[in-house]
Task: inverse folding
């Protein structure tokens, strides 16, 4: 499971509960995943004892963030020594700095050897790689095609070896380290890996520090240029730059929160802002999650931009001052939008079309509407009409498509629902289109281009939705019609957020009661997606669904219930404050992926609405 993620919009490094690097993405957050395995080993020369830290039962693992930054800190506690590891990514250089500090707990001086094993699968394939030792630079280098990874030690490595794994009956060159001595092979290719070694002398009760620097570039010339730049500077200074930048970066975000909130809720809010930033790429792509665990169970990952997720995440970015990141996302959307105005299911971070399980035309109508709505929200946070003018082509194409994609009743034609399971006229999707068309009309008014068409289409659709999708007997919206599905679905709570139901409408109260009564998970707390959901478990509680309920209660004037649900969400975060997609209803454990960026963005969004309510003493903010 991912416990830390650090990055700079090009490099994204994740770290697992053992303190090992688990995924290394480059040159976009979420693409490509270049890492197969990393191990950190310690050899006690006097005791002739070796341990792979994190795997040896004699060592325990503790983790937290390093001194207010987003850097990951792992402490390995052993019988004779402790080893502290801090992983950080530089803000403007494609450089990972790994600080390793060995603490000698004995009354005698000790000699250790540290071993760092790295096995890459460059460009997501573990074959055709090369690993070699560069005598001139004293670095270990891995490469394939246009991806280069150069490892430098500070102090310099005392020994090394390059080897192979998986094929020819080989386990990997990490085995070479386990006797405390490396063979020193200078080059390998195929399924290549390598080990670096430092000899570390530690005084009695003292400590010794080494640093591993991993430089990443897309040519041999570029990575060697990085080496020349960094060789002339102290590794400690480079690490300090990385740590200080991210600490100062978060200090410039608005962290004012109501005093009634717990310290944990505040910490999760802070970490959520880091997650939003870390999972966005320099080209504007925002991935749903960097966690690849679903690859084994479903043959695919969440390392894509979904336009629904991205739109909601970009709104949260605007709320916390990540205005430039939100703008890049909307420009990325412009590049990926189909000529007809809609968006396909999902895209890779490089902008190419992602995999899908839907038949052509691959449409989830709410995704197009969500991007249009996000443009309006983005404009409101700055008020710059030039921004609307720049993004007008996205809005115009999207709104024209939404207006045309309707039946004789004025409702959208069937498309896949937001859970991506059923093709129908889905309640949430209709609400999203109503909202998107209305926001498109507002944008056109600001630009002097209004003709009233989109607002009329939105109003007609709202009337039709209340007529055809409201189930008065159950006191909530049907999940869908065409075909009819009367399942209670948490996403219908968003009809308040999206302006279909006014909080003063008696149906709003009935809807909130119906969803909370039927979908509240008694064993763990939290709200399930819908009746009968079996995705990763029977009616598991989802973080976003519970936060939708929190926002609905706020809109109905119950801020205390909102605060309770925000605190529940904060408690679901792991030890390093990452929010999952969902919890197992039987065990309460994280399941599917962690983190889900949408969980973090929804936490930020509802927290800000709660704050504004408390500060203003007024009804909840409905200005989506």
Result:
């Amino acid at each position: 499971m991912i416990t830390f993620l650090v990055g700079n919009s090009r490099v994204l490094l994740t770290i697992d509960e053992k303190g090992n690097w688990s995924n290394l993405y480059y040159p976009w957050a979420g693409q490509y995943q270049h890492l197969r395995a990393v191990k950190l080993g310690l050899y006690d020369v006097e005791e002739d004892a070796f341990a792979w830290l994190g795997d040896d039962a004699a060592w325990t693992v503790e983790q937290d963030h390093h001194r207010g930054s987003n850097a990951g800190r792992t402490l390995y506690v052993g019988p004779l020594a402790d080893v502290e590891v801090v992983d950080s990514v530089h803000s403007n250089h494609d450089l990972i700095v790994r600080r390793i500090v060995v603490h000698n707990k004995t009354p005698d001086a000790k000699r250790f050897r540290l071993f760092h094993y790295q096995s890459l699968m460059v460009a997501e394939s573990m074959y055709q790689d090369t690993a070699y030792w560069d005598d001139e630079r004293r670095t270990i280098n891995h490469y394939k095609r246009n991806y280069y990874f150069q490892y430098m030690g500070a102090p310099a490595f005392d020994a090394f070896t390059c080897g192979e794994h998986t094929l020819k009956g080989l386990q990997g060159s990490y085995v070479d380290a386990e006797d405390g001595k490396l063979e020193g092979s200078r080059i390998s290719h195929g399924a290549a890996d390598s080990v670096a070694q430092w000899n570390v002398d530690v005084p009695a009760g003292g400590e010794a520090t080494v640093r591993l620097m991993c430089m990443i570039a897309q040519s041999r010339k570029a990575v060697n240029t990085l080496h020349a730049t960094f060789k002339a500077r102290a590794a400690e200074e480079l690490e300090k730059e990385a740590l200080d930048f991210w600490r100062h970066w978060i200090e410039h975000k608005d962290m004012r929160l109501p005093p009634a909130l717990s310290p944990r809720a505040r910490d999760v809010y802070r970490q959520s802002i880091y997650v939003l930033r870390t999972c966005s790429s320099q080209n504007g792509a925002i991935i749903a999650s960097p966690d690849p665990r679903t690859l084994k169970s479903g043959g695919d990952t969440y390392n894509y931009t979904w336009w629904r997720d991205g739109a909601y995440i970009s709104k949260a970015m605007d709320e916390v001052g990540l205005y430039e990141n939100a703008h890049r996302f909307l420009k990325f959307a412009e590049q990926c939008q189909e000529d007809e105005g809609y968006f396909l299911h999902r895209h890779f971070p490089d902008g190419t079309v992602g995999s899908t399980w839907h038949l052509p035309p691959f449409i989830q109508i709410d995704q197009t509407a969500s991007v249009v709505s996000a443009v309006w929200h983005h404009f409101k946070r700055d008020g710059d009409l030039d921004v609307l003018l720049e993004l007008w082509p996205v809005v115009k194409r999207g709104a024209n498509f939404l207006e045309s994609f309707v039946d004789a009743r004025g409702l959208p034609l069937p498309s896949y629902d937001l859970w991506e399971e059923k093709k129908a006229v889905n309640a949430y999707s209709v609400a999203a289109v109503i909202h998107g068309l209305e926001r498109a009309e507002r944008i056109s008014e600001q630009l002097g281009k209004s003709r009233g068409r989109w607002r009329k289409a939105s109003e007609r659709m709202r009337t039709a939705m209340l007529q055809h999708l409201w189930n008065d007997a159950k006191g909530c919206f049907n999940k869908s019609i065409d075909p009819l599905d009367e399942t209670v679905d948490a996403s219908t709570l968003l009809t308040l957020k999206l302006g279909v139901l006014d909080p003063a409408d008696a149906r709003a109260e009935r809807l909130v009661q119906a969803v909370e009564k039927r979908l509240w998970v008694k064993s763990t707390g939290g709200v399930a997606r819908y009746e009968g959901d079996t995705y990763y478990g029977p009616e598991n509680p989802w973080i976003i669904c519970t936060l939708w309920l929190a926002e609905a209660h706020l809109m109905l004037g119950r801020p205390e219930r909102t605060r309770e649900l925000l605190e529940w969400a904060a408690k679901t975060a792991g030890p390093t404050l990452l929010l999952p997609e969902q919890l197992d209803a039987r065990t309460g454990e994280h399941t599917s992926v962690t983190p889900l960026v949408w969980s973090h963005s929804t936490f930020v969004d509802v927290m800000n609405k709660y704050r504004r309510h408390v500060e203003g003493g007024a009804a909840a903010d409905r200005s989506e």
User: Anything to note?
Assistant: The CA atoms of residues 413 and 518 lie 29 Å apart. Confidence is low (pLDDT under 50) at residues 618-622.
